[in-house]
């Protein structure tokens, strides 16, 4: 992170220039120049210009050089617990305690400070001059002028250094019922196959920002996570912590959980758990609460029903996910569509079992959640999560902001954030540009949720733009009528969330698409869960 040799190179350049200047003087007789005062400093730090707060690791150092001229007095001051080091310091040095030469204050022009205290530290430069001086920063706002004290002028500059400590992992592990497990002993923790344990990172020292849990092949990159242990056997667990943020000192620590884990056969029934769902390639996924042992030829024990039997289908194969044996994969001989209503049943007569010898329970008419894809393929843009991004004000004096509190205490339709638009007139609103590309000749559906505060204009327009042209304009009355929210609906009450659906027909494959929400007058409006999906209807 540091460029320790730069200060020495700078001092040498100044010295060489002084020699050249003297040697080139035509007069043999030396004329003493007029004395002048100036202030400057240099920090061996990789970022330029230097940030307001410098960053380094605990037990590492930074080098500060005072380049001022003709100061009456000069000193560096550091806080108790930090130390000055003796140079030279080699680039590959990593242990510095044997180079400590003092603490408190130093009158050396260049000092290397070893930071032993974590958190915010301060390095003070205190210089006194007989003349007024000014430090010239990269901008006028960064300039620092001396303050007159008595007959002299004082520069009193404090550098702030945020020192990052070494990561020291601290964790807690619980069963799903909240029972805290003693993970620091070497006693075995027994877990039934398919059961979950909750893990929590409680680390306070070192400020990690990246997590990786692994117990028995069950993994998570969340700070706090729920791990389902599926494989039988004995396992050791780990938590790998990293500090990886931009421009901050990195660190890495792997904590090996002392207590071993043993996953034993479950006492619970082997059954369907969670939702059945469709993959993009039309595979139907059926999740169970344990792993299946290898099997073949079980297609006849399952039934897939489409639209109540109106569209017969046959099963071509039943297998397990090659990466997760708790998931059954069902493939069909016929095409299915997102508009279909599909259910799956198992008659209970198969001979396959779990890896811990349990027989799967029968189930009937489990609904299938059909695969979908939002062409606004970012929760930050579509649901404004993490305070949103990409949306801009457009059309005049209007304001947009991302908020976490819905109007009148109403629940937020999706996620934790919504978009708020305050419009002072028609044609104003918020626009999202360049969010994706589309397949030519294909129909899509634009849907979103909107809430209008009472007193707002009673219509809103959603424009789907290609380039700068209005490709599709959708006017929506914000008054619910017999046919829902649509133009010409009868007057009704505001103050509730409404979902709007519009069809976009035969979009070309240009990449410069935009969505523009523009109320038809003054008012306050809230939007959430913007969704563009391909129309996939059974012919």
What top-tier CATH class of the largest domain fits best?
Answer: Mainly Beta
Number of helices: 2
Query: What is the assembly state of the chains in this entry?
Result: single chain
What is the radius of gyration? 34 Å
Shape: flat
Structural class designation: mainly beta
CATH architect. name of the largest domain = Sandwich
CATH topology of the largest domain: Jelly Rolls
Mean pLDDT: 85
Number of domains: 4
Number of strands: 41
Strand composition percent: 35-45%
Low-confidence stretches: 1-34, 479-493
The percent of residues in helical segments reads: under 10%
CATH superfamily of the largest domain: Galactose-binding domain-like
Strand order of the largest sheet: 27-30-31-25-26-29-28
Largest sheet: 7 strands, mixed
Span between termini: 62 Å
GO molecular function: hydrolase activity, acting on glycosyl bonds
Domain CBM-cenC: 382-471
Keywords: Hydrolase, Signal
Protein name: CBM-cenC domain-containing protein
Keywords:
7-stranded mixed sheet, Immunoglobulin-like, 44% strand, single chain, 4 domains, 4% helix, mainly beta, 2 helices, 6-stranded mixed sheet, disordered N terminus, 539 residues
Give structural notes.
This protein has 539 residues and is mainly beta. Helices cover 4% and strands 44% of the residues. It has a seven-stranded mixed beta sheet with strand order 27-30-31-25-26-29-28, with no helix packed on it. Strands 2, 4, 7, 9, 12 and 13 form a six-stranded mixed beta sheet that branches. A hairpin with a 4-residue loop joins strand 14 and strand 15. The longest helix has 18 residues, at 6-23. The protein starts with 5 loop residues before the first helix and ends in a 5-residue tail after the last strand. Residues 1-34 and 479-493 have low confidence and may be disordered.
């Amino acid at each position: 992170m540091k460029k320790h040799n730069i200060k020495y190179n700078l001092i040498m350049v100044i010295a060489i220039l002084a020699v050249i200047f003297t040697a080139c003087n035509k007069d043999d007789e030396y004329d003493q120049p007029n004395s002048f005062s100036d202030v400057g400093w240099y920090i061996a730090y990789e970022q330029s210009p230097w940030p307001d707060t410098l960053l380094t690791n605990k037990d590492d150092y930074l080098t500060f050089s005072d380049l001022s001229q003709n100061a009456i007095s000069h000193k560096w001051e550091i806080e108790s617990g930090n130390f000055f080091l003796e140079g030279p310091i080699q680039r590959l040095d990593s242990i510095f305690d044997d180079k400590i030469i003092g603490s408190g204050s130093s009158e050396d022009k260049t000092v290397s400070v070893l930071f032993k205290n974590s958190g915010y530290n301060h390095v003070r430069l205190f210089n006194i001059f007989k003349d007024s001086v000014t430090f010239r920063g990269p901008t006028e706002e960064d300039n620092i002028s001396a303050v007159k004290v008595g007959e002299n002028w004082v520069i009193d500059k404090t550098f702030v250094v945020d020192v990052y400590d070494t990561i020291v992992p601290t964790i807690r592990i619980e069963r799903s019922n909240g029972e805290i497990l003693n993970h620091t002993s070497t006693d075995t923790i027994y877990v039934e196959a398919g059961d979950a344990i909750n893990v929590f990172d409680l680390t306070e020292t070192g400020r990690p920002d990246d997590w990786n849990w692994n117990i028995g092949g069950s993994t998570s990159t969340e700070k706090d996570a729920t791990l389902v242990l599926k494989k039988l056997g004995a396992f050791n667990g780990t938590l790998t912590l990293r500090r990886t943020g931009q421009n901050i000192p990195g660190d890495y620590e792997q904590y090996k959980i002392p207590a071993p884990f043993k996953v034993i056969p479950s006492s619970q029934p082997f059954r369907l758990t969670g939702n059945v769902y469709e993959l993009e390639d039309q595979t139907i996924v059926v999740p169970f609460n344990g792993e299946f042992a290898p099997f073949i030829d079980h297609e006849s024990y399952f039934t897939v029903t489409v639209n109540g039997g109106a569209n017969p289908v046959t099963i071509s194969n039943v297998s397990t996910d090659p990466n997760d044996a708790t998931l059954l994969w069902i493939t069909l001989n016929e095409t299915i569509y997102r508009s279909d209503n599909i259910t799956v049943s198992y008659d209970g007569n198969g001979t396959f079992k779990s890896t811990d010898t349990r027989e799967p329970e029968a189930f009937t008419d489990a609904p299938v959640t059909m695969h979908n894809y939002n062409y606004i393929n970012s929760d930050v843009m579509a649901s404004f999560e993490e305070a949103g991004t990409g949306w801009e004000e457009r059309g005049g004096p209007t304001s947009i902001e991302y908020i976490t509190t819905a109007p009148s205490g109403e629940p937020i339709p999706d996620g934790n954030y919504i978009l708020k638009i305050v419009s002072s007139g028609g044609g104003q609103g918020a626009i999202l540009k360049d969010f994706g590309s589309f397949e030519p000749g294909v129909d899509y559906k634009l849907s979103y949720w909107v809430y209008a505060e009472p007193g707002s204009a009673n219509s809103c327009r959603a424009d789907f733009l290609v380039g700068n042209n209005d490709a599709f304009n959708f006017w929506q009355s914000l008054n619910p009528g017999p046919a829902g929210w649509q133009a010409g609906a009868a007057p009704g009450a505001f103050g509730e969330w409404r979902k709007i659906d519009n069809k976009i027909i035969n979009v070309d494959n240009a990449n410069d698409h935009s969505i523009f929400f523009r109320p038809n007058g003054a008012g306050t409006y809230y939007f959430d869960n913007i969704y563009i999906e391909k129309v996939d209807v059974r012919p």
